[in-house]
Amino acid sequence: MTIVSAPFEYVPTSRLRLSDLPRLARRHPLVLAGGALLGLLIILALAAPIYAGDPANMDPFKRLQPPSPEMWFGSDNLGRDVFARTIFGARISLLVGLLSAATAAVVGLLVGVIAGYSRSFDNVVMRVMDGLMSIPTILLAIALISLTGPGIGILIVAIAIPETPAVARLVRSVVLGVRERPYVEAALCGGARLPKVLWRHILPSTIPALMVQCATVCA
Predict the structure, then answer these.
(1) How far is 36 from 9, CA to CA, in rounded Å?
(2) 172 vs 125: CA distance, rounded Å
(3) Residues 6+ apart with CB under 8 A from 178
(4) Residues 6+ apart with CB under 8 A from 215
(5) Prediction pTM value
(6) 43 vs 81: CA distance, rounded Å
(7) All residues at 6 or more sequence positions from 214 whose CB lies less than 8 Å from its CB, including other chains
(8) What is the pLDDT along the chain (219 residues), one digit of tens a residue?
(9) What is the DSSP annotation of 145-210?
(10) Residue 156: how many other CB atoms lie within 10 Å
């Protein structure tokens, strides 16, 4: 008697639902608090033109004023509203931080996943990543700005380049551990193609570590 079984395909047993959010919030209150604070900062920065004054407006008669209902953070030596300058400055800071983190995450994720699965590629790329990690961010930013001129785009690149190796090494370590899991081996033995295994079984395992590293880059 011969028993023919269908090819095995791993199917996740649980998925994140909206009803699970209160439970996750109770289990991870610091994550909830950090996300709420970041969301508040983004809302305040986006709505700055509505409630904040002109950050470039100068009034010599209001130089170095203490905090007041009119100027919450006081004024600087040119009579400009420090609160308005802080809020409008937060828009640029958030833009640079988020785009730098996104750039480092995408490039580092791609490099880390490939390095974790290809031994020949791993040996070469990790040495390049080690070299990039030895470059201080400030020196790289100064060098790039001196070559191309100042700008937000070059600042994002200067921050993302030194942070990419850290993301790549972190993702690589996760991939090296996950690729040996039984469900990954079972999926490959069952006939699943490597891109599908990477997308369904390995990439989701890198998300928690990737989020922590992105938060570090934004900070």
Answers:
(1) 38
(2) 11
(3) 184, 201, 202, 205, 206
(4) 34, 101
(5) 0.70
(6) 20
(7) 101, 102, 104, 105, 167
(8) 444 433 333 344 445 565 666 776 677 677 777 778 888 888 888 888 888 878 888 888 888 888 888 888 888 888 888 888 888 888 888 888 888 888 888 888 888 888 887 777 878 888 888 888 887 777 877 888 888 877 888 888 888 888 888 888 888 888 877 776 776 766 767 766 767 777 777 777 777 777 777 766 666
(9) HHHH---HHHHHHHHHHHHHHHHHHHHHHHHHHHTTSHHHHHHHHTT--HHHHIIIIIHHHHHHHH
(10) 20
Domains of the chain: 39-218 (1.10.3720)
| Token reading at 212 | 């922590």
For the chain, give the number of residues. Answer: 219
Helices (H) and strands (E) in the chain, counts: 10, 0
